[in-house]
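A student in our group prepared the protein record below, which I am reviewing. Thanks in advance; the entry in question is below.
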Amino acid sequence: MFFLRNFSFVRRFSTDRPETISSALKRFYLKVHPDLFTQHPKEKDVNEKSLQLVSAYLSSLQRKEYAAAITVTFFTKLPRLEPAPAPLLLTSHRIRLDSKDLLISVNSILNGLNLPMIDVPKTSDPQIKRNEIHFKIVDIEKFYDFTKIPKISIETWLTSNIDVARTMAKRHRESLKDINEKVNGIKQRFHLDSIEYSDEWSVPQFYACLKTLLTYANKWQERLSSLRGKRLIFGDKTCLLQDGSLELGANDPPVYWDHVICFELLESDEYMKKILFYENHLSNYFQGIEIRRDPDSDHLSRAHTYLHHLIQLSQHLDLNRQHDAHQKFSWRNFHLFINPFSSEPSLTNSGIFQINSYDATMDILDFMTNHREKAQKLKKIYEKETKKENYLCQSVRDQFQLTEISSNRRIRKEDIIHCYQRLLDQRERFVEILTKCRLKIDQNYNLAQNGTISIPWNWSFAHEETF
């Protein structure tokens, strides 16, 4: 992506109208912004990739580097001739960029989308080049970065996507009815607590996983019976999880499933016994600390990875039984999170100590003894914020008559609370739009396959640029 700011022509230039590259390209962004095409994934992908190509081309011109000619395509929306739910029509614009002049290239983009072009600066000084335009360029991101593109107004997003969201949610419910019988059949057959899959998936993706499982169910009958009371998750990896649940990678071939089910799953009880033993060992070392996961994280590690960290931590701590963390302090009412993916000893937002076996043992012990008060303080704040978040969440759900409401756990609770409060403050403005919808508070705008419509926690009424 390219992100331009603080554009202005050199002062000794004059123009026929006070148009700037910044405002012109902003209109361009708001015509082709990928967030406006969530319900049209192919067109969204085309616009996203075209923006990346244009980014590289214009940045090369600004740096006076060689830029090979490119041809890109952008999709835009045609004005709706009939009120919703009449289908929205799209049109494509093919643009070729081959000029070495920055201003001409920008005008080519604007002209290709039928947007007002920037007037060529007038000057009486022949030594001043007309493409000598002073502005700053923010480094181009290799990948699409939602945080560095102009923000879309929440009203623009909702009015453009809410009808599609309702249609997708209804279709999702109807599709689930057709496969609920199979889901319930598998749960009863293997006495599962639940069968789960990603909210981002379409029902056909979930159904394909179920069909594969049913195809091999007779072969795996005995092995899968060990999952009694546990979860079966269709996700990104195929493995036994730290809580004894089974995750099957949706894109993995059945031979991967076969290996985990026929070998790892057979050792599930042994894994769980060892995990419990070493968790109790750590709890005793820290005089009654409780081993638990961070409530803001829904990630579960592989069982063997988690067990490895428990064993290593236990061995390292046994060599340091003279430390104050073991000898002097009681850790009752404190919590410890063994996270194989943490980078260093730390405190989570909920006041839980977070460590792994790759952290230096003395660093762990010193950190924990030095941050006891902070952990207690964070815990109290978190508990208070959780109560407030739950209250406001229920209020938003009731007042907007939402079908479902959720939030991204990685977002700070104070930000979620602020978002809920702003929605309630603007109830009259949004109540008719959001009624009977599935809403999620997230980092960015999005429309999931199940019809859940996401808005960023820091949504805005105005179009603006962030850098």
About this structure: The chain has 14 helices and 16 strands. Residues 3-150 form one domain. Residues 154-190 form the longest helix (37 residues).
